[in-house]
Write a structure and sequence with these properties.
- This is Zinc transporter 6, chloroplastic.
- One of its GO terms (molecular function) is zinc ion transmembrane transporter activity.
- This protein has eleven helices and no strands.
- With 342 residues, the chain is an all-alpha fold.
- Helix 2 packs parallel to helix 7, helix 3 runs antiparallel to helix 7 and helix 5 packs across helix 9.
- The two termini are 24 Å apart.
């Protein structure tokens, strides 16, 4: 268990960094900078998708972007969010009290996040399976007796071809609905994470911590925006929904910073207050569980094992699969590297 005692030198250095006016000035700058970088990150894949839609390489490019996005989101959950949640609940001000010292709550809440994401997935999949029309009779066809055999056979073949085309369109629509669900649940998990980042930064009075965080979080939002934007681009939302989802991502962290500043002004709680640490740890664990599930199940497994472009046995499918794997690794590595600063 960590000790709450601090050395004299560390205490003097911490006191010198605590400047409310300077911290408030930096936080106001960060609101604008993080908003602009968030817009840049999430709008990039969306605008590219709109521009290249219908072009020969469009589907492959979106798939590669989505694999990069999956790596970013997986790294965000495992390298950024989850360790910070454990660290918050392991702080000596929290872990020295009941019930926090008796049970690993960070792991439990992460598990709850995974199971919750699975439940949402199952419920939506069941709804999509039962939705969608189709004629009555459970797929049985009424074939009239009589008439020429050849003519009847041609009618059956024509009917079968039409039914097959309808079935393919229905399957494509189900895939689109699944992609939209993934994007929406993914955004919920990322918004949780963004609120935590923003509130924590807004409550902090340590200018020495805030200054490097502005640059690090700017890159963080760009990569996270690329991840979410890639999923939104593939889901095929209407323009109004796309704008709304992009705006929600862009404003969440800045609004979290403002909310953190308001909490500090109203309560005097800073980012080291035990109650703030508990809330940060629990919300971080929940969002981490959601993001882990979405990255592994709904992004990586779905594309690498069920996407038609990656499951073909020809040479082009093999090359595309390797390219997607490289994109996944690059996304994971780039986001993991940011853990050195934020």
């Amino acid at each position: 268990m960590a000790s709450c005692a601090t050395g004299t030198e560390a205490a003097i250095r911490a006191a010198a960094c605590r400047d409310g006016d300077a911290a408030a000035h930096l936080k106001l700058i960060s609101v604008l900078v993080i908003f602009l970088t968030s817009v840049l990150g999430i709008s990039g894949p969306v605008l590219l998708a709109r521009y290249f839609q219908g072009k020969p390489l469009y589907d492959k490019a979106v798939l590669v972007i989505k694999c990069f996005a999956a790596g970013v989101i997986l790294s965000t959950s495992l390298v950024h969010v989850l360790p910070e949640a454990f660290e918050s609940l392991a702080d000596c001000q929290v872990s020295s009290r009941h019930p926090w010292k008796d049970f690993p709550f960070a792991g439990l809440v992460t598990l709850i996040g995974v199971i919750t994401a699975l439940l949402v997935d199952l419920t939506a999949s069941e709804h999509m399976g039962h939705g969608g029309g189709g004629g009555g009779g459970g797929g049985m066809e009424y074939i009239p007796v009589g008439g020429e055999a050849v003519g009847g056979l041609e009618m059956k073949e024509g009917k079968f071809g039409a039914d097959l085309e309808i079935q393919e369109r229905k399957e494509e629509e189900i895939v689109k609905m699944k992609q939209r669900l993934v994007s929406q649940v993914l955004e919920i998990g990322i918004i949780f994470h963004s609120v935590i980042i923003g509130v924590t930064m807004g409550m902090s009075q340590n200018q020495c911590t805030i200054r490097p965080l502005i640059a690090a979080l700017s890159f963080h939002q760009i990569f996270e925006g690329l991840g979410l934007g890639g999923c939104i681009a593939q889901a095929g939302f209407k323009a109004g929904t796309v704008v709304y989802m992009c705006l929600m991502f862009a404003v969440t962290t800045p609004l979290g910073i403002v909310l953190g500043m308001m909490i500090f002004a109203a309560t005097g709680y800073d980012d080291q207050n035990p109650n703030a640490l508990i809330m940060e740890g629990l919300l971080g664990s929940l969002s981490s569980g959601i993001l882990i599930y979405m990255a592994l199940v709904d992004l990586i497994a779905l594309d690498f094992f069920h996407n038609k472009m990656l499951t073909t046995a020809d040479e082009s499918g093999s090359k595309l699969k390797k390219l997607c794997f490289v994109a996944l690794v690059l996304g994971s590595a780039s986001m993991s590297l940011l853990a050195l600063w934020a």
